[in-house]
Amino acid sequence: MTRLLGTITAEGYACRILEDEDGRVHYMADADIDADGANGQHGGLAAYKVDDTGSELLANGGMKIVDGKVVCAKPWARTIVILGDDNQPRVFAGGVIASMTWYRHPGKAYDDPAAYVDSETVPYIVVPPLVVQQTTGVVRGCKARASWRGRSVDCVVAERGPARKIGELSIAAARALGLPDSPRDGGTEQPEVLYELWPGAAAPGYVLQPA
Questions:
Q1: Of 61, 43, 179, nearest in space to 120 by CA
Q2: Which of 1, 59, 95, 186 stands the most exposed, by the fewest C-beta atoms within 10 Å?
Q3: 146 in a structural domain
Q4: Which residues contact residue 185 at a Cβ distance below 8 angstroms, ignoring those fewer than 6 apart?
């Protein structure tokens, strides 16, 4: 028997989030590209840079440049990037503004850019809060899979998105599926990507982290 966890109506369609008897959660949704966690820690392009040449626009991270300095233009930007003593985005080597993911690698400090899951090199999915709230198993760090047009990629749940956004993938996951992988203009607006996750079952190399 399949249980309906809930329906999210946003972005022009209704997404039904389902849970099977074996605990698998699945839904069909669009795919935005999430660059968070890409801090250049594995040689890839960082999501955010002081000169706005990162893979993602500073504006999409709630930031802007004022008098040559990157500042938080939106209050929620402070939940995305590592902050300095002035409560503004901290600049790391190479002009990187380090962004965070919901999942943080155990044993690494909050202000370590390598503590977060690298969107450039790690396939991950982003889940809406409804999934976290309605499932009994732990979601953060659990194994997942994304599929599109005959291709599939194994993933980890590394991010939790806003309530009204449904489908999101890391850059690496989109690349593996053959989707346009730019955070600025990639992904697909059509609800044609299958998202699957197994709450309570850790993805290889990860540990479950209760919300």
A1: 43
A2: 1
A3: yes
A4: none
Which domain range does residue 81 map to? 48-111
The answer on 126 and 30 residing in a single domain is yes
Query: Looking at the structure, do residues 126 and 176 belong to the same domain, yes or no?
Result: yes
| pLDDT (tens digit per residue) in 20-78 | 999 999 999 999 999 999 999 999 999 999 999 999 999 999 999 999 999 999 999 99
Q: How many domains does the chain have?
A: 2
Which tokens in the block code for residue 193?
């990507």
Q: Among the three residues 111, 132, 166, which one is the final residue of a domain in this structure?
A: 111
Give first-to-last CA distance, the chain, whole Å: 27
Distance CA 75, CA 202 (A): 32
Angle, alpha carbons 106-79-209 (nearest 5°): 30
The answer to whether residue 42 is domain-embedded is no
pTM of the model: 0.96
Number of Cβ within a 10 Å radius of residue 74: 13
Report the candidate in 164, 157, 155, 154 with the shortest Cα–Cα distance to residue 130. Answer: 164
